[in-house]
Design goal:
single chain; C8orf32 fold; eight-stranded mixed beta sheet; 3 domains; alpha+beta; Jelly Rolls; 12 helices; Immunoglobulin-like
């Protein structure tokens, strides 16, 4: 997939979140038409009020949405996608939702043949004139811009049908994912996919040289997958979905590519032959490194002589392999002290060479893990990504040099796991957050065999690999209306693998600066001293003495302590309008407990009420209670997702504004002598 089509996919995500669909699929050889070049006939049932009741539609009902992908007669980098939408609006809210249409497209795409109309119940039709179809820029990033064709339906009243169709011409080898869900119920959706023809010069007698497959996803699980289809026996694929409910009403759009009902089409090349695309050649070329490891190796056979025992599965075998590697091999680039300055080594070309010298680079570890898993009966290969720290939107895939990280993907049956064995710390099955959610190219390591992996895949976001921070703060009132005390923070950086490897290699000043950035919000007047640090694997403990100014205010004979100034979480979303998705790195669980020791001459007169609620992907719990010596404040903030659509920016800001408004409720101190 090209970078521009990926951008287009991101900007098309706005109105979709996952729900459940009933999937019916068929692959036929009859060609029923490859274009939407006229309006579909309107069935009288589409005016039937009982249909609205059966779908529970109040504001709008999507009667039909269809896509036709046709690139069978075009060159290997070009395709045409037709899109047809028919909606019945039922209320003023429905008109507001669909009365204006926006068709986003990237710079190297074209939107042509836009037709739109309003159909009244009495059969009269009001077309949208071509002169009233405008073009506007909806987002820009540097020199890159996302534009859209926009238009407003004319003479719209509740009960009318709105419909439009258009053609998208794009440069991409693989069709983009197609979104099949709306904020209102959908009666019917369909996709027709006309596959490419076999590339010139290919071996027609080679079965499954060039095939195609598709997957329907729902809540991150594949509901249906097609059979592989050889291109020298051309076929068209037709998918029909009915009774698709709307996505839930919630302000967040977490990991939208994964959580929506989506049609994922993809081509694959199990063999390397003339006529293959550039990226197919890259996949084969990267696979050559790994294929040398998979070959017969007496050293590896001996090294794995004691295979894992007990009840085995893919997860346990991965754990066994990674622990075996960590106990016997060192990874170059993660050493400290004198080891870090040792002379560089070339990558090991074979498993025998790596095991003989006992040290290698992350790619060497990837290749070795593939060889070990293949010996244990699992399919495995290496994958390559441009990681999220390089920017969550890849501008354009142009060269293999854009890749920044690698790992291993393995599967057994329908189970698939993604692993980064080159990181010597952390959970073997927990990827660095920089990899998750990224588009990955999978190396073809099955040169003489049928490749069980597709060429491109999306690295899944972590399900429950959230980073947890537990913070304890003890505070005393200081003369001059300040606070002082001590802080202890325990960090379990399950997903932030890069952080746990980098931290020990920093000098003391930089290390404590990095820890303060994690624990003490930059917008507060904290001053830390007597800092201490301890780390075991992914577990990090940071402790310090601290002073805080600006948290205590004199109000007559009362002292007001601003609790927002003693928070230890740092969720800030400064951009009011977003043109891009939000990436907070990884899911976060933050538990903090603040104990305030009240001076003997003061007493606590008033404390804030508790709060417990959940808004989309954010859960917030707040408990404030008096103790024998003062006050205890317990706060839990859980952010269960890491990637959010751009539409989530304002809702997410609103949620944290609500949290911080709660934080700002002060507790009140008065003199004990005051009745």
């Amino acid at each position: 997939m090209s970078g521009s089509s990926r951008r287009a996919r991101v900007f098309l995500l706005g109105f979709f979140v996952a729900a459940l669909a009933v999937v019916l699929a068929s692959c036929t050889q009859s060609k029923l038409g490859t274009r939407y070049d006229a309006y579909r006939a309107i069935d009288q049932n589409e005016w039937n009020e009982s249909m609205l009741e059966s779908f529970g539609a109040r504001d709008a009902l999507v009667l039909y949405e269809g896509y036709i992908i046709d690139d069978q007669d075009l060159d290997e980098e070009t395709m045409v996608i037709d899109h047809y939408v028919r909606i019945r609006v039922l209320s003023e809210q429905g008109i507001e939702d669909y009365g204006e249409a926006e068709i986003p497209y990237a710079e190297d795409e074209k939107i042509i043949g836009v037709h739109a109309r309003t159909v009244h119940r009495d059969g009269t039709v009001v077309e949208v004139p071509s002169t009233e179809i405008y073009e506007k820029t909806i987002a820009s990033l540097g020199k890159q811009a996302m534009k859209a064709k926009t238009f407003a339906f004319k003479a719209v009243s509740p009960g009318d049908i709105l419909e439009y169709y258009y053609t998208r011409e794009m440069r991409a080898f693989t069709p983009p994912p197609l979104l099949l869900q709306h904020r209102h119920p959908t009666v019917e959706a369909s996709v027709k996919w006309f596959f490419k023809k076999m590339p010139p010069g290919a071996n027609v007698g080679q079965e499954y040289y060039f095939g195609a497959k598709y997957v329907i996803t729902n809540r991150g699980r594949a509901e249906m997958e097609s059979a592989e289809t050889p291109a020298h026996d051309p076929r068209e694929c037709q998918i029909h979905l009915r009774n698709i409910p709307p996505f839930p009403e919630e302000p967040f759009v977490p990991a939208p590519e994964v959580y929506m009902t989506t049609f994922f089409p993809e081509y694959f090349f199990p063999y390397r032959k003339a006529g293959a695309s550039y990226w197919n050649q890259v996949s084969d070329g990267l696979g050559e490194f790994t294929r040398e490891y998979v070959k017969k190796s007496p050293s590896l056979d001996e090294w794995m002589r004691e295979e894992p025992s007990g009840d085995r599965n893919l997860d346990s075998d991965i754990e066994w392999c990674v622990q075996r590697m960590r106990s016997s091999l060192r990874v170059r680039g993660f050493e400290s002290g004198d080891e870090a300055t040792s002379d560089p080594l070339p990558p090991a070309r074979t498993a025998d060479e790596l095991l003989a010298r006992g040290t290698g680079y992350t790619l060497d570890m990837d290749n070795l893990l593939v060889a070990m898993l293949r010996r244990l009966g699992h399919d495995a290969t290496t994958f390559w990504v441009r990681d999220r720290s390089e920017g969550i939107l890849l501008e354009k895939w142009e060269s293999w040099r854009q890749f920044t990280m690698s790992g291993v993907v393995a599967k057994s049956g329908r189970e698939m796991r993604w692993v980064a064995p080159g990181f010597p710390l952390g959970d073997a099955l927990c990827l660095p957050w920089e990899m998750t959610g990224c588009r990955a190219l999978l190396a073809n390591t099955y040169y003489e065999e049928k490749n069980p992996f597709s060429m491109w895949a999306d690295v899944p976001l972590p399900d429950s690999k959230s980073n947890r921070i537990d913070t304890e703060v003890i505070l005393f009132l200081e003369a001059g209306e300040g606070l002082k005390g001590a802080l202890r923070a325990s960090l379990d950086c399950k997903s932030d693998v890069g952080f746990i490897h980098t931290l020990p290699k920093l000098d003391a000043e930089d290390r404590f600066a990095a820890l303060r950035e994690r624990v003490l919000p930059a917008d507060l007047a904290w001053t830390a001293s007597n800092e201490q640090y301890e780390q075991v694997n992914t577990q990090i403990v940071y402790a310090c003495s601290l002073a805080l100014s600006g948290a205590v205010e004199q109000a007559g004979d009362r002292l007001l302590v601003d609790l927002s100034k003693v928070r230890t979480d740092n969720f800030v979303f400064p951009d009011r309008k977003r043109a891009l998705p939000i990436d907070v790195g990884f899911p976060i669980e933050h538990h903090s407990e603040v104990r305030f020791i009240c001076p003997g001459d003061l007493r606590i007169e008033e404390i804030p009420a508790g709060a417990h609620w959940k808004r989309g992907s954010v859960r917030f719990d707040w408990v404030c209670q008096k103790t024998e010596d003062g006050l205890r404040i317990q706060r839990d903030v859980v952010l269960s997702d890491a990637l959010f659509g751009k539409e989530a920016a304002e809702p997410l800001r609103t949620v944290f504004q609500e949290i911080y408004a709660k934080y700002r409720e002060p507790f009140v101190l008065v003199s004990r002598s005051r009745s």
